[in-house]
Amino acid sequence: MMCPDTDFLIELYEKCLMSSTDPYDVMGEHLCHNLGLFAVSVWSQHPYVRDASSRVVFSKRDKTVDLILKDQELAARVLDDQTVLQGSHNGLYYWAGILRGTHTRNAFVAWSTEPFSQMYTTYLEKLCPRLAVLLDLIVLMNPISSNRVARELESTQFIQHQLMPSLNALGGKNFLSYRMLPVHELGGDYLDIISYEDGSVGLTVADAMGKGMPGAFVMLIARTIFRFIAKEKIPPHRVLSTLNNQFITEVSAVDTFVTQFYCIYDPAQRSLIYSNAGHNPPVIFSSQEGQVGVLPGKGIALGGKEGVGYQSYATRFEPGDILVIFSDGLLDARNESEQQFGLRGIRDTIIRYKEYSADGICDGLVNRVMQHCKSQTDDISLLVLKGD
Fold first, then answer.
1. In terms of DSSP bridges, do strands 313-316 and 380-386 run parallel, antiparallel, or are they unpaired?
2. What is the pLDDT of residues 357-377, one digit of tens each?
């Protein structure tokens, strides 16, 4: 372990703020190397999902050592209790402290192969306020995106806290997480997470035609019907068939439709059973093959035709596999040259962040799409499942 001088901080600020790639990656590598640590991480209290934090910075010397669960536990305790933690875990020593920024609140976790001396812990305590300032600067580097996010978060706070599902299923945010960014005060997208008694979970993302209040009105109707039907564990194709017929009855006077993807994930059986009603095919990453593809199968949108049948499909979902279910807004986000973020953007992001938790992958997708499009024109919703 080392206690570098002031030049180290100046260089850290310059490298992060002048980075043409990812300043968080630069920060992690710079801290880990120059402080002589085994690993470092920064967890940010998440504004998009209630009671959530995400690992935005992470670097370690040995990739075979798995620290994520203990790392997250330490960060959560620091953020909740506003305290400093120090101890050992699996032959490594840790120190964790709070980073109180003006615009962000984060937890810093340092890992070492040697016990932390008093001199070194004092150095880390003095380093934390400077890291908090740097993280604030990184957030403010893109004021357009930052302001847009802040505005959307404020306007949708009620929906996120009252209607959005919790992340208690599957052991927490390491394996399941989501984000929702409506383009107006209320959005036409909805997603849901349903826990069943046998340990399996139902996951859905839907996109109602329309934005603002019209889209939100359709979304609320569709979501209410879906929750009633899916409270019992029945095959996805039956859920969508029943939902379609009931939805047509409820909104017969309104010319509208909803696209929806619904799946049931059983971690014990490592199975994923799904059905699709005109929605974007989710993207799936196979950890064994190292390849990214899409789930086949696509039926007619809900509300399109009464009595239409749907089909359920099944696939294996192994540890390390990643599933991203998303709405049109993520796929269709365009930059100033009218280029879509598209499947390529989603695939590249998954490959880049495949070692991260589900929460971290969500962060990566939101960060990348916001860098791609300076002005949001459609609701963006995404749900990430990572095999345990």
1. unpaired
2. 888 898 889 888 888 886 677
**Alpha-carbon span 176 to 185, nearest angstrom:** 26
DSSP 218-254: HHHHHHHHHHHHHTS---HHHHHHHHHHHHHHHTTTS
Which tens digit of pLDDT belongs to each residue from 260-275?
999 999 999 999 999 9
CATH number of 145-386: 3.60.40.10
| CB of 54 closer than 8 Å to CB of 360 | yes
d(CA 275, CA 297): 7
The CATH number assigned to the domain with range 6-140 reads 3.30.450.40
Cα 384 to Cα 321: distance, rounded to the nearest angstrom: 11
Q: Which two tokens stand for residue 345?
A: 């953007």
Query: pTM of the entire structure?
Result: 0.63
For 21, list phi and psi in degrees, rounded to 5. -110, -105
Token readout for 229 is 């039907």
Domain extent listing, the chain:
6-140, 145-386
Is the Cβ–Cβ distance between 272 and 265 less than 8 Å?
yes
Backbone angles phi, psi at 17, to 5 degrees: -75, -20
| Long-range contacts formed by 22-25: CB under 8 A, 24+ apart | 23/138, 23/141, 24/56, 24/57, 24/138, 25/57, 25/59
> Which structure tokens are listed for 62?
């040995």
What is d(CA 277, CA 252) in angstroms, rounded to the nearest whole number? 18
